[in-house]
Design a protein that fits this description.
InterPro entries: DnaK_N (IPR037187)
Distance between the termini: 25 Å
Strand content: under 5%
Structural class: mainly alpha
Helix content: 55-70%
Shape: elongated
Order of helices and strands: HHHH
Bound molecules: zinc ion
Number of strands: 0
Zinc finger (dksA C4-type): 80-104
Length: 107
């Protein structure tokens, strides 16, 4: 299996997410100002929660991407972690960090 294309995709995705994460980090720091109205603060607490949820999702994704990159290095990329079968190009094209084949994923 030629993993070069997937590796490239994963690396650019990883970079994009890292940039997004640093943007969020800056945004949160920026929000840490004093002297706000109470209503505003409530809104911001909610916004912060959304940010944190997003950050968590991005962290999860980056973990999957790093694992996928490690699997490329090990030469096991494209093999399902559960059943050991081929994950298949269609799944990998849509989600290059996927570690499960289509049928294991839908279980
Ligand atoms: Zn499987």
């Amino acid at each position: 299996m030629n993993t070069d294309t997937y590796k490239e995709k994963l690396l650019s995705e990883k970079k994009k997410i890292e940039e997004e994460l640093s943007t969020y980090a800056k945004g949160l720091r920026f929000r840490d100002g004093a002297g706000k109205e109470e209503d505003e603060e409530a809104d911001e607490a909610e916004e912060t929660a959304t940010y944190l949820g997003l950050q968590e999702a991005l962290h999860n994704k980056i973990t999957h991407i790093k694992k996928a990159l490690a699997r490329i290095e090990e030469g096991v990329y494209g093999t399902c972690e559960k059943c050991g079968g081929e994950i298949g190009g269609a799944v990998l094209d849509a989600e290059p960090e996927s570690s499960l084949c289509k049928s294991c994923k839908s279980l």
